[in-house]
Amino acid sequence: GPDILALEDEDLEGRALLEPVMRTGQVLADQPSLDAVRDRCATAMAQLPDAVRRPRATNALRVRPSPRLGALTRTLVLAAQPA
Known about the structure:
Blueprint: E1 3-5, E2 22-23, E3 26-27, H1 34-47, H2 50-53, E4 63-65, H3 67-80
Parallel strand pairs: 1-4
Antiparallel strand pairs: 2-3
């Protein structure tokens, strides 16, 4: 299925692709070694469909907003329109 783009406080099934590393100027956790980062990247790349792993892939990954993010986006777009 598609990846889901969600708000930070949403609790959805799956795993977050981005993790906070700093907050208010403070490092939140020890940083992984270069080898650990390389291994994580290789694992993540191996999980992608073949069609998007090629360097010049023309097939895009499907990404959709979560229901809350979609509703917020619609609200903001409507609010930004001139009266």
